[in-house]
Amino acid sequence: MPSRRKPITLLIALAAVACSHRTRRTPDDTLVMLMEAPATTTDPRNTLSNYDTKLAHLIASGLTTVDNATMAPELLLAEKIDRVDDLTYDVTLKPGLLFSDGNPVTAADVAWTYQSVLDDPKAVSYHQLTERFTKIEATGARTTRFHMVAPLATFQTDLDFGIVERAAATKGGRFPNGIAIGCGPYVLDRLDDTGAWFHANPRWPFAPPKIAKLEIKVVRDASARILMLVGGSADLAQNSARLDLVDDIAQQWRVHVESGPSALLTYLMMNNDDPILKDVRVRQAIALALDRDAIIKQKLGGHAVLATGLLPPGHWAYEPNVPHWRRDLPRAKQLLEEAGYHDPDGDGPEPRFTLTYKTSSDSYRVALANVIAAQLREAGIAVEVSPFEFATFFKQVKQGAYQLASMQTSDITEPDYFYTYFNSVRIPGKKNPDDGNRWRYRNPRVDALTELGRRQLDRGARRTTYSEVQRILATELPVIPLWHEDNIVVENRTVTGYSLLPNARYTGVVTTTKSE
User: Fold this and answer.
1) CATH number of 94's domain
2) Last residue of a domain, one of 169, 195, 214
3) Share of the chain above pLDDT 90, in %
4) Largest CB tally within 10 Å, which of 206, 209, 378, 448?
5) Within a domain: 178
């Protein structure tokens, strides 16, 4: 394991900023937030990346929300949810709701938001919704009826889907200039590759944002983001700091750091269709060659929790009694021998085989990939790390054009994500290029269990089902769960009140204030 070496240039720059008497300040009426990659849309029907989703929730709220400490669904725009029968639910809107342009939020808008996706196979959310609903219709001014494909335990969580205004859309269902109109705490003024600009929604029916304007700047370089915060030209950044620098950043007089548990998983994906990686013994050997404890300590500054699967510890469906893959190099080498990948020269430099590891071009993620590559080399696996700009990297992952790659999940609020990520019907193809099983994993038992788990309305029965799913996945390792990185917020000391959520959404900016 390489020694813990911090980027000297950044530490020197931090020291220089700390010693400088020249300080900058953002406008009093504007919260300036930093984000590492651009969003491409804020229309909740077509969000693809985490960045899209985070911004969409600022302008278009759902009937329910999971933006809370437990991530259990709570009513938001909905006043009540009534079960008609196992396949039918009526959802009633709160009275007096208005879109940001002043038009009333009606059941017709709710029905259109969902139905426009069901009617459009090209919509990003098409497969997600068609596997849940057969039809959504307005049965009154405030009441929408949801017709289900089958009984669905995730129904209330699924209603955390932003509602947008039908009258504001074009005939084709799109929004002029790509700016969706919703009923959220903010109104989007502009979105481009450099950032997003918002103003507070005066018609938001709940406690209004405490700061009138929100500017989210895209700054791809991690060091530049921290220098902007320490220098005073930005107010806040969430999960944008290198974890091994968090403790040093916290010593800077201009900022303070907050942390909390995360519902996101960082994982090493493996293409299960690859001739080498399709062998479960090879995947297990890779897991045994990794020293994740050392990486967490030395490269993440201890700001992460070791992962055993998709769900974080503390989740109601988390199963702790699964295989735990701690580092064991002799066993890793033995499994590779059993798989037919013999060491060609003993302790010599020749590898058993070579894999390509694709990652985003973010310098910190590249550094982590290099550490993983060095650890695998000790088991005789040569790894070539290939960084790409994120859009290119993500496209190749979806196409299956990789052997190894690392990413983070979206926020895991529901164990139904096991279906999204591991059911074989969710393997991306021409008809569903954005589906979640990007490692192309196939297991009939997991298919059956993940289908069953979403239909069981009893939580105890679901826990039993998902326990078995977790044991299978922890044995077969279609992906290697690495760790759950802490949610880290770096704030200017003038900033208070930001709510840090396990799902890492940005809705915490609503309660944020700035002082002198």
Assistant:
1) 3.90.76.10
2) 169
3) 63
4) 209
5) no
Reported pTM: 0.78
315 lies in a domain? yes
Amino acid at 487: N
* Together in a domain, 473 and 499: no
Tokens read off for 241: 């700091």
| pLDDT at residue 366 tops 50 | yes
Residue 140 DSSP one-character state: S
> Domain end: 113, 143, 169, which one?
169
Q: What are the tens digits of pLDDT across the range 441-489?
A: 999 999 999 999 998 888 899 999 999 999 999 999 999 999 998 889 9
Print burial letters for 210-225: b (CB count within 10 Å at least 16), e (below 16): ebebbbbbbbbebbeb
Neighbours of 406 (CB within 10 A): 20
* DSSP conformation letters of 45-104: TS--SHHHHHHHHHH---SEE--SSS---EESSEEEEEEEETTEEEEEEPTT-B-TTSPB
190, 304: one domain: no
**Do 286 and 407 sit in the same domain of this protein?**
yes
Six-digit token string for 438: 């990007």
- Structural domain range at position 192: 8-18+26-36+185-261+487-514
44 is a domain residue:
no
241 confidence band (pLDDT: 50, 70, 90): confident
Give the number of other Cβ atoms within 10 Å of residue 331's Cβ.
15
**CA geometry: angle 158, 416, 39, nearest 5 deg:** 60
**Where does 346-389 have alpha helices with state H?**
363-377
What's the CA gap between 172 and 299, in Å, rounded?
48
